[in-house]
Predict the structure of Dipeptidyl aminopeptidase/acylaminoacyl peptidase.
Amino acid sequence: MTGLTAEIVVEGHVPQAPALAPNGQLLCYVLAPTSRIGDHLDTALWLADIEDDDVWRRATTDTATESRPRWSADSHTLYFLSDRAERGTPQVHRLTRTDDVVIALTGWRAGIIDHLPLADLNLVALLAEDEPTEQGTRRAQDRDDAIVVGEREPRARLRLLDLCTGQVTTPSVFGDRHVVELRQRPNGGPLAVLSQASADKDYGPRTGRLHLFDPTTGTAEDLGSVEADAHSLAWWPAEDGWHLGYIALTPPVLQAGTAVFDLAMSSSLRRNRTAALPMCPTELHQTDAAPLVVFADGLNTTLARLDPDGPTPLAQHPGRLDALTTTPAGTAIAALTGTRYQPTNVHVGPPTGPLRKITHTRPELDGITFGTQRPLAYRAANGLALDGLLVLPVGKSASDGPFPLVTIVHGGPYDRYADRLQLFWFPSAQWLATAGYAVFLPNPRGGQGHGHTFAASVAGRVGQEEWTDILAGIDLLIAEGVADPDRLGIAGGSHGGFMAAWAIGQTDRFRAALVSAGVVDWGMLAATGENGQFEAALGGSTGWNGIGPHPHDAVSPVSFASRVRTPVLILHGAQDTNVPLGQAVYFHRALRHFGAEHEFVIYPREGHSIRERNHQLDVLRRTRAWFDRWLQP
């Protein structure tokens, strides 16, 4: 029997972006490595006839980053993006099933961001930035490339590729707006176009607008503004005509609480179709009839049909169900899902289930024994129902406790733990379980899967009720004899890193902590992070709200650095734009000032997620060694 090693964790491959052909017979997906060696992530397209032999074959052989497979309306042609000609610059390619020949269709110098084959088999809609000017191609020493913020910012524009002529045209109907998503009405007709005023991740999501674009006449109609962070466009017919839906944040809270919004084209009436539901929509998918909605539902996932009277549940799936793809009739689906002890794979079947697994992308995990994983249901201090997961050390049962317990808090905070295999490149439950740790994965307030109110309750109150929700779960595990109260650790990345940093400033109960890409000052994050307005909603204020102290000071871990007595490992990517490196530097300097035990590690070239193979290996080994040092399993 093979033991779990860091190499096995980071050297695996994961399926992405399944694309089911309209005929329901052919399926393509992207296979991507967990880690990257070199400057580019080399991916591959795999293709199978799932109605015949289920035999997979690699559709392309070039070394390239390949992504976004899309089928033509007649299922004869597969379109996808590949940077095989120039690494880092993706172009649209075509694979024709009759001869299996791959042809590059574009040579757009700025690269193609996304594409959508249209009902007119001679047209493909593209999203692409403007091609670089002569100024941008000059030698470095001759350039006058000062950046004036707000001027000449990159914009993704709608463009049309004529497959007969090979020409790319750019309709000048959306002004200088940044186009983010397209969806054509079933059986042809206009395109729904979602745009923002800017590609700026801080400013843009609050400026969304919907448009109709007629690819035949080249004309457009403005349908008005949409809620923040709108995405996942879908059309459907109803008795009163066509409807257009999307998922967006429920106003006025910016950081959480997604809903399905329904725009009736005949009346311009817009409704929230998922208000008050105890679950959260994550994907909306178009069919020729009523659309399908994927809901985060506690630790599991519910697939529903959006009927006139509201969502009708079709099936519940354990853990997560992601990247749904469906035939036009909606009678067959494919998606990514797994189990507690099996990694994510492509599954197919009817929307009512059951789904059958048709890929086996991580055979290296066969034969590995994982720690027992079980759902937890418990109550917060005020009686609110909560859930989470407990993973026990490999080969142990709860009666063998108490064990050293590491609590890993998820990010977001609008994310969740689902009842799936908890094994990732970052310190995850099964990685620590192999070293003798019990691991608690809580779903406190602010997260996804329990409705809007649950998610929105942390706005301006981070570190308050969500912190006591986590403590309630830890106290339960101590009372049950699972956790050793003298050997408690806490960890997390991103918002989970904030919670770990917050925890050690509030209590001395933890003997070790890990803060990965964590938030330590909400005011600074609102000012420098790429999602500043969202962070301001979480922290409760900004530094320009007048003379302090500000509300965000009271919920920023750096304000409590003088209290830290817990040894803490700080990990951060040097190029992180989501939570900039300055957050970690600030915490490091504060802890150094007060003489607190800590170690600070910076990963060059890395962003908010660590991608390079050697860096991922270092994260896994270093973090487990850190907890071994202080918790002694």
Q: What stands out?
A: The mean pLDDT is 95. DSSP finds nine helices and 36 strands in the chain. Residues 105-132+154-225 form a domain with the Neuraminidase fold (CATH 2.120.10.60). The radius of gyration is 25 Å.
